[in-house]
Design a protein that fits this description.
Elements lengths: L10 H4 L13 H71 L6 H24 L1 H14 L1
Helix pairs in contact: 2-3
């Protein structure tokens, strides 16, 4: 080896006491290392507890959202048929109002609006069947 400069630490002294060859577990630095390991364990335990709390919060939120979905589905099963019938009624009423106008441009425009409202009714009725289609698809996955 090379010459050592006075005051420069030797290789053995540059290592922490617990890492030096022949170090005893009771070294002061060794106790610090054990405390650091304990601290890491506490950190991991704290993180686990934090994750458990977050998981519980997410499970509660998920349950609440599932309840809200069920409520909205039940409302659509009632509301959609109602609004589809209302749309059908409005379309028929517009057709009746357009009939006396004959071939006038206003009659053509009113009949186009009636046709659009009839399309809305068809779309609403298709939405009303969405839960049934979802259940059928689920049954096919389960038993198909």
């Amino acid at each position: 080896g090379g010459r050592r400069i006075k005051g420069e630490p030797t290789e053995a002294h540059s290592l922490p006491a617990f890492a030096r060859p022949g170090a005893e577990p009771d070294d002061v630095d060794g106790n610090v290392a054990r405390k650091a390991t304990g601290s890491r364990t506490e950190d991991v335990e704290d993180e686990c507890e934090s994750l458990r709390e977050r998981c519980n919060a997410l499970e509660q939120r998920n349950a609440r959202l599932l309840d809200e979905i069920a409520i909205l589905r039940s409302r659509t099963e009632v509301d959609i048929p109602h609004w589809a019938n209302t749309a059908r009624f409005c379309a028929r009423r517009l057709e009746e109002l357009a009939a006396p106008l004959g071939e006038a441009p206003l009659a053509e425009r009113v009949l186009r609006v009636a046709c659009d409202i009839s399309a809305v009714e068809v779309g609403l009725r298709a939405l009303g069947g969405a839960p049934l289609r979802e259940e059928l698809a689920e049954l096919r996955r389960a038993f198909g």
